[in-house]
Amino acid sequence: MHSGSDSDKAGVGLFTPETGSSIKVTKANVLPKRGEEQLGRSDHWEVRTEEQAYAYLPKTDSEIENRYGKRIDLVELTDNPVGRSMFINDNPAVGTNPDRNKQHGFFFTADNCIGCHACESACAEKNDTPAHLAFRSVGYVEGGSYPDYKRMNISMACNHCDDPVCLKGCPTRAYTKHAEYGAVLQDPETCFGCGYCTWVCPYNAPQLDPVKGRVSKCNMCVDRLEVGLKPACVSACVGNALDFGVIENTPESREQCKTSIPGFPSPEITRPNIRFQQTKSMPEEMTRTDSMPVKYHKGEDGQYKPVIDQKVGKKQHWNLAKLNSRENPLVLFTLFAQAALGTFMVPFFAALAGVELFELFMASDMMLVLVVTSLSMTSFGLFMSVTHLGKPFRFYRGFNNLRYSPMSREGLGLALFSAGLGLMAVSLLATNTWINELLVSGFDIELSVLTNALPLVNLTLGAGVFAAIAGAAGLYYMNQCYQIKARPFWNHWQTLTSFVGNSVSLGAMVSGVMVLSTLAVLSLPLLPALQLLGGVWLFGVVLEAIGLIGHNRDLNASENEGGAAHYIQCTTFGKTYKLRNLMLTLNIFASLTLLALGELGLFNTQGLASESVGVNLWAFVAWSVIALINCISAVIGRALFYNLVIPTTMPGAFFWKNKGFEQHARDIGLADNPACGVAPLAH
To answer: Of all helices (H) and strands (E), which one includes residue 108?
Structure first.
């Protein structure tokens, strides 16, 4: 409760959240006379004749800090000057709203919402959104039994959070948190359509348009705010469920100012600027009508927490066709980029560690082939990531937000890794026998003579170390891209073990082909290199298996959206999940057996030219089969990774914001009608 005299308001006092705000909002004082609606206001928005009183923003006192301890006056917080223009629609005028530099937010009274969708319609009309997008949407949860069956509607748009994860995640810096109204605005013209902001937002506020290939979202109707009007959705609400104003100011005739209601994700993720009232008693359990296997159970503290709703039963299925998704480019990007890192690092670090056979390989002409192979795999992976963008020709904007975005840092790390490999390849050219012979015979150029004065060995080593450091950074930030609180299935240390494990096992496999073939041509012993590569490969697979065991244990005990995603993994994709785990287990035991046989001397030969060539050949065949199984396992595992995640998103309705209905509409052809509101499978 705010304490102190009136002089404490708007200058000194602090907000105490235990019992809510003491500041009550009253209606606008004096409505403008007919024909004078625009008098004294900026020209950002034309005020309608006889605009209703509830559409005007009142001038009120406000708290100093919100319940999260952040100052409401954003000029004091940011040191930005008062009276800045927001250049709305390129209009340089400054709005006339006296509270324009204070954090504003929505207030939703769930008791009053009748589910008429007038707020959706007003928002769509003002922003001219297509049928498959909605900046504001109404979903609902329901529970109980006849005759006491209850439904609670939830109208939700962007909450213009104190800690906007969309802003921090966006690699193009398309988002800005303004000191004016605290609005989080997004520029669709800057966006290149990666959709990462739609992953990190818990409230489904950013909307990715697969037709235009870019994201857009609620802009708080800042043009209306500048002239003292509330957002269009609030003005259109017929049930007095939606309101808007300076945050922590409780609207007239409201007794609560809560930060959550059933179905609303944890406010601790982003500290959203929305407050709720929901006084009507609700059943102990509330279910969603969309296809998400999540429901909400009231705890002892009276708060509703998500729990698993076993909507599809417990029967296990294959559903291999459903592994094909719009995220396929990311499956290939992550696997190829990780394999490229391992392909280079395994033999490079083995040589640096003084392993003689790998030192000989690094000094051979095939080292250039390995470096170029790794560079090509990285380039292909990056190309696939670009094809995933809605606006692929804007890919260069991905480095705009290195300060905050792990996606920008991931891209930079892989780009520097590629640059290091390129520099290493150039330094290896001068000492490569094949290249020198080609230049001499074709162009009479002796490259070795031209570069004789250069410290090529040091350049090669330095470029390799640089590439290794950059690649490790790229892999680390690749993992950080998926440590998302709004996606608990990904937000687990298993993601890191999977990425590192795949990098090691796939890298050992690809590099092993080149290393062993080179040693065979040089008539050098193969078994020691095969054993070392097999051991490294086994480490990668075991690391992945450890992560999966921990993931399974933690999500089996979880009741949040991560546990729900694991439930889908064990049912809808249950047989596919078991197949992947069986492959992984088989590979571990098979590789242990082969390594043990090698240590016992059963593969003790000196090379392919020896008399025991059959034994060596069978060893290679066995390792090749294991490598093939590992590739299949990796592809299945990564496809499951992208298909299974369930976000902490807001509840949808039966026909709207319902993934199950959207898929059904596509299956029967209903989605071909644009008015259906189901986005085409594009992007």
So the answer is: strand 104-109
What CA–CA distance (Å, rounded) separates 152 from 641?
33
Beta carbons within 10 angstroms of residue 571's beta carbon: 20
Whole-angstrom distance, CA of residue 282 vs CA of residue 90: 47
The total of other beta-carbon atoms located within 10 Å of residue 523's CB is 12
DSSP H or E run through 581: helix 574-599
Q: Where are the domains positioned within the chain?
A: 57-290, 320-650
pLDDT number for residue 12: 27
Under DSSP, is residue 344 helix (H, G, I), strand (E, B) or coil? helix
As to burial, measured by CB atoms within 10 angstroms (0-12 exposed, 13-18 middle, 19+ buried), residue 54 is middle
Q: Taking CA 66 as the corner, what is the angle to CA 63 and CA 71, rounded to the nearest 5 degrees?
A: 80
User: Going by DSSP bridges, is the β-strand pair 274-277/104-109 parallel, antiparallel, or unpaired?
Assistant: parallel
Helices (H), 397-493: 406-429, 433-443, 447-450, 456-480
274 backbone dihedrals φ, ψ, rounded to 5°? -145, 140
CB 159 within 8 A of CB 273: yes
Evaluate the omega torsion of the peptide bond into residue 147 and state whether it is cis, within 30 degrees of 0.
yes
Q: Count Cβ atoms below 10 Å from residue 28 Cβ, excluding itself.
A: 18
Neighbour count for residue 356 (Cβ, 10 Å): 13
Confidence category of residue 614, pLDDT binned at 50, 70, 90: very low
**Residues 332-384: pLDDT tens digits?**
999 999 999 999 999 999 999 999 999 999 999 999 999 999 999 999 999 99
Instruction: Pick the range with the lowest mean pLDDT from 251-265, 271-285, 498-512.
Output: 251-265
CB 390 within 8 A of CB 193: yes
pLDDT tens, 269-323?
999 999 999 998 899 999 998 999 999 999 888 888 999 999 889 999 999 999 9
Give the H/E segment covering residue 169.
helix 165-169
Kindly report the length of the chain.
683
The pLDDT value recorded for residue 600 is 81
Decide if 100 contacts 113 (C-beta within 8 A).
no
DSSP assignment of 233-270: HHHH-SSS-EEEEETT-BPTT----BS--TTPPPTTTT
Q: What span, in angstroms and rounded, lies between the C-alpha atoms of 385 and 45? A: 41
Cα 404 to Cα 68: distance, rounded to the nearest angstrom: 22
Residue 538 exposed, middle or buried by CB count within 10 Å (0-12, 13-18, 19+)? buried
Quickly state the pLDDT bin for 450 (edges 50, 70, 90).
low
Tokens of 253: 């005739």
Residues β-bridged to residue 148: 145
CA-CA distance, 166 to 40, in Å (whole number)?
36
Statement: 57-290 belongs to CATH 3.30.70.20 = yes
What pTM was estimated for this model as a whole?
A: 0.91
Q: What is the dihedral of CA 403, 405, 410, 411, to 10 degrees?
A: -80
The pLDDT assigned to 449 comes to 67
- Asked if 512 and 361 count as a contact pair (C-beta separation under 8 A), the reply is no
Contacts of 600 (CB under 8 A, 6+ apart): none
Residue labelled with tokens 């093939």:
628
Rounded to 5 degrees, what are φ and ψ at 151? -130, 140
Q: What is the pLDDT of residues 534-593, one digit of tens each?
A: 999 999 999 999 999 999 999 999 989 999 999 999 999 999 999 999 999 999 999 999
Q: Which of 635, 640, 636, 683 is nearest to 338 (CA)?
A: 635
DSSP tag of 606 = S
